[in-house]
Amino acid sequence: MGFLAGKKLLITGVLSNRSIAYGIAKACKAQGAELAFSYVGERFKDRITEFAADFDSKLIFDCDVGDDAQIAKLFTDLSAHWPTFDGFVHSIGFAPREAIAGNFLDGLTRENFKIAHDISAYSFPAMAKAALPYLNDKAALLTLTYLGAERIIPNYNTMGLAKASLEASVRYLAEAVGPKGIRVNGISAGPIKTLAASGIKDFGKLLHTVADASPIRRNVTIEDVGNVAAFLLSDLAGGVTAEITYVDGGYSQTMGVTTDLA
Ligand code: NAD
């Protein structure tokens, strides 16, 4: 029996088997959790149905987090199957391509700013607000963030602003729901080649730089992130909330340059 036995968790953001959310689902399932999934876009329904089946789940829900009505519907629909549940993973991010390439100011428009913040930051506390009536005591909420929230990472640009907001929301949300026994955390993952990441200009270069400079001399995997996520979602992490946990091979503690200088 794993440390998530008896827990019912909603996982958002599985788009491929390279998605960070897929790694999280794998680890949570291995620890005994029951899973439900949300995705966006009717055209992905068959694919997500198959992914859910990999995890013995038939619970999949189409939800565009850019729409409050769809967020509300997600949780009312879920409650028809699970009257209450134990938490969710927010593994969702989006910014228009020109907002994550080149000079920050070239890609900066009011519209790009709004979209990046709406989908990547607002959606996390908005989902928490809608889920609240259905969350059990000791529920745990988790989101995914990136070092570009606090450091200048080439090309991350407007997404860095959105992630900074997301990280602040982890703290304020933790305070808002903490008295109900609910915990809120973020994982700051190192770069991983996923569909979302491939939208960031020169992402391949970033992967190399980070692998070279990280104390563990490699990039992290969705399994590395998944295992930490499973822990944070479990009662083992009962004393951990309002935190950003780094799963980045130690890169955030370096100067960002390779240590193996000739
Ligand atoms: P991914 O492309 O596999 O997942 C991104 C998900 O966001 C997709 O499932 C997509 O459908 C979903 N999404 C986008 N717009 C949406 C909307 N309007 N409504 C609902 N869902 C929407 O990529 P990923 O790298 O696994 O990204 C997951 C999270 O991890 C993101 O928040 C990303 O910023 C974060 N992250 C990624 C990395 C990385 O290097 N890959 C590093 C740190 C943090």
Automatic annotation (TrEMBL):
Q: Which family does it belong to?
A: Belongs to the short-chain dehydrogenases/reductases (SDR) family. FabI subfamily.
Q: What is its EC number?
A: 1.3.1.9
Q: Does the keyword Lipid biosynthesis apply?
A: yes
InterPro entries hit by this protein: Enoyl-ACP_Rdtase_NADH (IPR014358), NAD(P)-bd_dom_sf (IPR036291), SDR_fam (IPR002347)
**Pathway membership:** Lipid metabolism; fatty acid biosynthesis
List, alphabetically, the SUPFAM superfamilies matched: NAD(P)-binding Rossmann-fold domains
Q: Which domain of life is it from?
A: Bacteria
* Catalyses which reaction(s): a 2,3-saturated acyl-[ACP] + NAD(+) = a (2E)-enoyl-[ACP] + NADH + H(+)
Which keywords accompany this UniProt record? Answer: Fatty acid biosynthesis, Fatty acid metabolism, Lipid biosynthesis, Lipid metabolism, NAD, Oxidoreductase
Query: What's the protein name?
Result: Enoyl-[acyl-carrier-protein] reductase [NADH]
Lineage, top ranks: Bacteria, Pseudomonadati, Pseudomonadota, Betaproteobacteria, Burkholderiales
Q: Which Pfam families match?
A: adh_short_C2 (PF13561)
Q: Check the record and name the Gene3D superfamilies matching this protein.
A: Enoyl acyl carrier protein reductase, NAD(P)-binding Rossmann-like Domain
Task: List the Gene Ontology MF annotations in alphabetical order.
Answer: enoyl-[acyl-carrier-protein] reductase (NADH) activity; enoyl-[acyl-carrier-protein] reductase (NADPH) activity
Could you tell me which PANTHER family the record lists for this protein?
A: ENOYL-[ACYL-CARRIER-PROTEIN] REDUCTASE, ENOYL-[ACYL-CARRIER-PROTEIN] REDUCTASE [NADH], CHLOROPLASTIC
Q: Does the keyword NAD apply?
A: yes
Which top EC class applies here?
A: oxidoreductase
